[in-house]
Design a protein that fits this description.
The structure is a homodimer of 356-residue chains.
Chain A: E1 4-5, H1 15-26, H2 43-59, E2 67-72, H3 76-87, E3 93-98, H4 101-110, E4 115-121, E5 142-146, E6 148-149, E7 154-155, E8 166-169, E9 186-190, E10 201-206, H5 223-228, H6 238-254, H7 256-277, E11 281-283, E12 294-299, H8 305-314, E13 317-318, E14 329-332, H9 339-355
Parallel strand pairs in A: 1-13, 3-4, 3-5, 5-8, 8-9
Antiparallel strand pairs in A: 2-10, 6-7, 9-10, 11-12, 12-14
Helix pairs in contact in A: 1-6, 2-6, 3-4, 6-7, 7-9, 8-9
């Protein structure tokens, strides 16, 4: 039976990524060798890394604009400390927007490096909305925000205009919508939502902002060293990079980010419309900040949970329970989720309405 | 045509690891989902992580001895800085043995944290031997060594007796020979030699040595935080951990480390005997320090290189050229390399002797 995988991450990827990466494990590029046993310095893998780095910049519209793309390891959580290590001056100051659990985790690490100003926070309201109308200190070394809050189902629709470097954690919505990516100085994203399997982290950096904070940075935490080594300062996570390249190529073949965004909007509209129409459900996040990636919703009457849970499981839906800090349900509808799978969930919601 | 993969890492793994991991990408545990799309918090993956961590301690004979096994990301190069961050006191001192390129890279990172004493070095002789007869300062916070030097083909046959914590980078020979692993306080190893594909790093820690150096450690670099989170502080490199578990199970099924060591000794003996017997070849490393994992050797007459290179390539051998800092050849004969493949190389060496 076909599964409809609503997992928040690691999550659904295109079927052709599964098929091609499984094949590469048995025989990569007709070399007689597995992708798991080839040297990262082999011609075939260097080509994978080069193509993946170039395709990232191409998809984001950042070619020829002074940006570099890196495939690192350690997850977005490692970037929480790499960003201040590389950008915050000794006795400097960083500014952060506190819009959710991951933003808060990033703030915690920044505080180890110096003054960390929280420009606004929605923590008191359990992060149900994106704070707005805040001011960014003009003397901050950078401003950090989280574009999409996976756990709470909120998403920044616009980004502040500021003269300080703009850093964004896009782990859960990169490659999902067409925005002006050149407004950012650093974009980072754990692969395991829209880009590939867990195990690699994309970091896109405007090169000119590096080397200005005067700190001595350990080699593995130094963006400049990774750029100089063309993202091969040490052995990269070969398989995860390869599977990410397959996913990036799938996005390109689909028509790039604008085409993917159109489908994402249709999926989100289908699901939010049902949540708003069906009296048995209500959305969990502030309407204007609703995420097009993670749709959080609740039953108006929690007593229907047992029946609803049985119904969606029988329909082949998996990964729907909400995060413990929100409760209810979270339907993660990343790029690779087909609209047909969203329709299956909507059908179950309507069937529940009829059954009650 | 069957390939005989002598790559230094990433490198050959057991065929069943390729077969089973490719299958898990198409359908993991008959779940209808790919190993690449399941949540790391799912019951099935938590079981993988738990089993892998337990099997490491079982294979190393460290069960019930106060050790914890972690599967982290970032590669052994990230451990170069995590070790001093976790063990070196403010104004403390660390002691390092400089036996090769990677030992030297570890020393470079330690120097950022405090006084770093190099107890001995073979750098002046291009690391052709393992230094011996050195003294470890009794007031060092720890002593760090590299058990096997992948590039130069040398291997420590014994480890110093010392009262300071003993830290060892075993990236290229872990699980290859039966030694008393309880003499070490930290063992770390990038997966991509004997344990699995690139993308995860094994760290085995005697828990009692942590929390004593008084530093504030960033979360992702703090071993204690990773232990507390049972190696899931953040999303782990799911696929690399799974493929590592498959490799560890293969070692266990073979009879564990003692059985694997016996085969490794036979392979190394076969190849070194030919290098010593055949007048066209000579070993690159000091005889008593020769590695059983990376066999470095040279042609006595470099003019034969063209003929030899053509012959081994025709025999299906790949990954044989030596590292640029040694030249000649390097045959990496990790656990998964069958003795039949070593015989193929020996046959080519003998055929060269007849052809000249």
């Amino acid at each position: 039976m076909k599964k409809h995988n609503y997992s928040a991450g690691p999550c659904i990827l295109p079927q052709e990524v599964f098929d091609k990466s499984a094949q590469a494990i048995l025989d990569f590029n007709n070399s007689g060798l597995s992708i798991l046993e080839i040297s990262h310095r082999s011609k075939d893998f260097v080509a994978v890394m080069d193509e993946a780095r170039a395709l990232v910049l191409n998809l984001l519209g950042l070619e020829g604009k002074g940006y570099q793309a890196l495939f690192l390891a350690g997850g977005a959580s490692l970037e929480f400390l790499m960003v201040p290590y590389n950008l915050m001056k000794e006795n400097g100051k960083a500014a952060y927007l506190d819009s959710g659990t991951w933003a808060s985790a990033a703030i915690k690490e920044a505080k180890l490096f110096g003054e960390t100003v929280i420009v606004a926070s929605s923590k008191e309201d359990n992060y149900t909305y994106i704070p707005k109308g805040y001011e960014i200190p003009a003397d901050a070394d950078y401003f950090h925000c989280t574009s999409n809050n996976t756990i709470f189902g909120t998403q920044m629709k616009t980004f502040p205009k500021t003269n300080v470097p703009l850093v964004c954690d896009m782990s859960s919505d990169i490659f999902s919508r067409d925005i002006d990516f050149s407004q950012f100085d650093i974009i980072y994203a754990g692969a395991q939502k829209n880009m590939g399997p867990a195990g690699t982290t994309l970091v896109v950096i405007k090169e000119e902002i590096l080397g200005k904070n005067g700190r001595t940075i350990p080699s593995m935490l130094d963006y400049a060293k990774h750029i100089k080594a063309e993202s091969m300062f040490n052995t990269p996570p070969v398989f995860s990079v390869y599977a990410s390249l397959l996913t990036l190529k799938w996005i390109k073949e689909k028509g790039g980010i604008p085409a993917v965004e159109k489908l994402n909007n249709a999926k989100a509209e289908l699901l939010y419309n049902e949540i708003d129409r069906n009296p048995l459900f209500k959305g969990a996040a502030n309407v204007e900040d609703r995420s097009n990636m993670n749709v959080t919703f609740l039953l108006t009457n929690p007593e229907h949970a047992e029946t609803f849970d049985k119904m969606w499981k029988e329909a082949g839906v998996s990964g729907l329970p909400g995060h413990r800090s929100v409760g209810g349900y979270r339907a993660s509808i990343y790029n690779a989720m087909p609209i047909e799978s969203v329709q299956v969930l909507v059908d179950v919601m309507q069937a529940l309405e009829k059954a009650i």
